[in-house]
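Attaching the record inline, Q. Sequence:
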Amino acid sequence: MNITIAGAGYVGLVTSACLAEVGHTVICFDKDIEKIEDLNQGRCPIFEPGLQEMISRNRDKERLLFTDQAYLAYGEADCIFITVGTPQKADGSADTANIEQAALDIAEYIQKDVTVAIKSTVPIGTNERIEALIMERVMPCLTVHVVSNPEFLREGSGIYDTFHGDRIVIGSRHERAASIVEKIYQPFNIPVVQTDLRSAEMIKYASNTFLAAKISFINEIANLCDISGANIEDVSAGMGMDKRIGNQFLNAGIGYGGSCFPKDTQALEQMALQFDYDFIMLRAVMEVNNRQKQTLYRKAKNLVGNLSGKRAAVLGLSFKPNTDDIREAPSLDLIRDLLDEGANIAVYDPAAMEKGKCLFGDKLSYVSSIDEAIQEADMAFIVTEWKEIKEFPLYKYREHMKDPLLFDGRNCYSVKETEKHEIQYVSIGRPGLPDTNPT
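Structure, as predicted:
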């Protein structure tokens, strides 16, 4: 099938490569000329394991093309997937301007009947509005049906999630359009959930905000463990064995970040307000997460006191491993707090250093290894659980640091092992150095 992907961002590139991989002919369209030139030169603009190789392989087979020309992208498409961004407005609601522009371009350039599938995360009612917007402007002889097809990709695991997803959600008012989208996904052999348009839109928001709620809940339990003497790892393990609860997203830490959870929780709260509904629980989820991001800083202040002039190593910038995305990352809150205190900060991340430089400039020292980051440091903070950080030998903290003091925001190490190496070790919700003021 001839497929066009509107938007060469994270979702667009992963979707383009994976659909080409299973045999579709895919054109990926974006108005960013420089990005398209990079892609046509074989340079992938995002960090995602396996994506560069998949793009190159399918370009060589001429199943995947990149263009900044709308008439080439839309003219002969059988199905168009809209994957453009829906950034936050100042009030937290989703900005759908990019989707509206994509709809206007589609109406102008299509030459035959087409199905449009919106993968972007959008407020309730957007798919209906976009279909009306296109049909008002398209040539009278043409018909366009819009389908809601939300994505559930995890950054760092996007290719795996595409081929091994839990479900594909298709919301539609038109049976034929829904069947076209379902046929496109048949090679993945993933269960399909068919709904109306608004239910599909809500499934996306409900899924992400539920996971955010699960993270905030376990972090609240971890804070209580800190002051009560319980061990959050034992608590999480005991909870997770209950099939009604499950063991995923029960890892205590310093809060969620990234491009989805923060944005979607705020957008859903704004949608609720538009319907005059006070979503109390969702507001609490966001409040807990904002507070949780300051956990390591608070623990350092409680233990060390004055941080001015102290050398601090921050290990990890990205909001999670296997991505260079630092949007809403807990590392940013920690770094800003440490800078405000007058600390000298050395940072290390395997993928996100350039983005850190763009944000903080010369306020930080950017180093090429963990060893260099912790050299002569007064304290070290583990913020992102990259494999190389989790597997970094504990004895090196004692070798390189002045007097090893390690604040672990991801519970990467065993408390007993840190004791063997005579490291002052502060983690989240586990026995160790006391936290006198968890809130």
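The chain has two domains: 2-195, 196-439. The mean pLDDT is 96.

More tomorrow.
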